[in-house]
């Protein structure tokens, strides 16, 4: 494992001097020792919280603008129109309306449903030869597309960018773990990632006890690439000290965090941090949107600790399916 000594790391300029940044363009341009230095800092952050902001990502602004416009347009449709693209039973894609999901239930906590709605889409193609019935019925279920010109094209363009970005981040993760840069490739070459557009509507009545915009949870997979609506607030992470801390809006950056499978892969070295979405007092009258790309290894990928510790492997697809069922049961 890398040595954990403090290294210089760029910080956000003004709003939140403490929030760590990973500049992917700087990583790509660095020589081996520069890469090792950046990777050591990523390792340190992943040990602590696994949350950081990514700049230098190269995702074209017009791809981001287009999906924001289509997501907003979709959520502004009448409820009965949105429900026309509700999920096929047992599948996670399409429109999940208010009252459908309580993320805290994925950890066995019984809370009221999250104050949100979402649109969800899965992998853009099915790997040739895939016959596993659960894989076909769950993660390779078709996405029910809304009848809105340009929605599908904008969605798929953003999904494609996120898939490529996740590969670059997983390469940094490999170096951060002192592994060859392409170590994770065989596990993530047919990923079963999902993209979710989230809308947290303005709240016109008081929430129930323990009801949040998103209940406290960890993400399930390898990596989440989150884009909160610019300037928006409400996402909080649990610090190692046990305090909830707001993630600041950071212009031009994605917020990334690792999920449960990365913790398992690193034998507990990296933290899949609890996070939630609250409603700051000045946000109750305002909607908030976000785009979350949940990067998930191949359906059949068997995740065992890199340390070689003898534990029963966790298979990526069935693990994801069981967590989704718990949160949506
Ligand atoms: O909307 C957000 O900022 C975070 C949502 C989230 O953590 C999730 O859906 O897993
Ligand atoms: Fe999350």
From TrEMBL:
<feature type="domain" description="Fe2OG dioxygenase">
    <location>
        <begin position="190"/>
        <end position="297"/>
    </location>
</feature>
<dbReference type="GO" id="GO:0046872">
    <property type="term" value="F:metal ion binding"/>
</dbReference>
<protein>
    <recommendedName>
        <fullName>2-oxoglutarate-dependent ethylene/succinate-forming enzyme</fullName>
        <ecNumber>1.13.12.19</ecNumber>
        <ecNumber>1.14.20.7</ecNumber>
    </recommendedName>
</protein>
<keyword id="KW-0479">Metal-binding</keyword>
<comment type="pathway">
    <text>Alkene biosynthesis; ethylene biosynthesis via 2-oxoglutarate.</text>
</comment>
<comment type="similarity">
    <text>Belongs to the iron/ascorbate-dependent oxidoreductase family.</text>
</comment>
<dbReference type="Pfam" id="PF14226">
    <property type="entry name" value="DIOX_N"/>
</dbReference>
<keyword id="KW-0408">Iron</keyword>
<dbReference type="InterPro" id="IPR044861">
    <property type="entry name" value="IPNS-like_FE2OG_OXY"/>
</dbReference>
<keyword id="KW-0266">Ethylene biosynthesis</keyword>
<dbReference type="InterPro" id="IPR027443">
    <property type="entry name" value="IPNS-like_sf"/>
</dbReference>
<dbReference type="Pfam" id="PF03171">
    <property type="entry name" value="2OG-FeII_Oxy"/>
</dbReference>
<dbReference type="GO" id="GO:0102276">
    <property type="term" value="F:2-oxoglutarate oxygenase/decarboxylase (ethylene-forming) activity"/>
</dbReference>
<dbReference type="InterPro" id="IPR050231">
    <property type="entry name" value="Iron_ascorbate_oxido_reductase"/>
</dbReference>
<dbReference type="GO" id="GO:0009693">
    <property type="term" value="P:ethylene biosynthetic process"/>
</dbReference>
<dbReference type="InterPro" id="IPR005123">
    <property type="entry name" value="Oxoglu/Fe-dep_dioxygenase_dom"/>
</dbReference>
<dbReference type="InterPro" id="IPR026992">
    <property type="entry name" value="DIOX_N"/>
</dbReference>
<keyword id="KW-0560">Oxidoreductase</keyword>
């Amino acid at each position: 494992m890398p040595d954990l000594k403090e290294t210089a790391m760029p910080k956000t300029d003004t709003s939140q001097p403490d929030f760590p940044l990973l500049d992917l363009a700087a990583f790509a341009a660095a020589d081996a020792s520069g890469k090792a230095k950046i990777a050591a800092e990523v390792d340190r952050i992943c040990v602590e919280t696994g949350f950081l902001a990514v700049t230098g990502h190269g995702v074209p602004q017009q791809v981001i603008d287009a999906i924001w416009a289509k997501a907003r347009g979709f959520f502004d449709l009448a409820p009965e129109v949105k429900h026309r693209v509700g999920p096929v039973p047992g599948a996670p894609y399409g429109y999940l309306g208010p009252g459908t999901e309580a993320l805290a239930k994925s950890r066995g906590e019984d809370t009221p449903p999250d104050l949100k709605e979402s649109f969800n889409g899965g992998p853009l193609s099915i790997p040739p030869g895939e016959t596993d019935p659960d894989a076909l019925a769950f993660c390779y279920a078709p996405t029910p597309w809304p009848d809105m010109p340009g929605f599908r094209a904008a969605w798929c363009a953003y999904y494609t960018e996120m898939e490529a970005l996740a590969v670059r981040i997983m390469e940094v993760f490999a170096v951060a773990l002192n592994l060859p840069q392409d170590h994770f490739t065989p596990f993530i070459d047919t990923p079963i990632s999902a993209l979710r557009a989230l809308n947290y509507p303005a709240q016109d009545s008081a929430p129930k006890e323990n009801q949040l915009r998103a209940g406290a949870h960890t993400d399930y997979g390898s990596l989440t690439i989150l884009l909160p609506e610019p300037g928006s607030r409400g996402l909080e992470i649990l610090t190692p000290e046990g305090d909830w801390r707001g993630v600041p809006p950071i212009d031009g950056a994605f917020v990334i965090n690792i999920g449960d499978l990365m913790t398992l892969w690193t034998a507990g070295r990296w933290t899949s941090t609890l996070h939630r979405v609250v409603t700051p007092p000045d946000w109750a009258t305002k909607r908030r949107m976000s785009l979350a790309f949940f990067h998930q290894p191949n359906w059949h990928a068997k995740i065992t600790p890199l340390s070689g510790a003898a534990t029963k492997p966790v298979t990526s697809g069935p693990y994801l399916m069981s967590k989704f069922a718990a949160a949506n049961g």
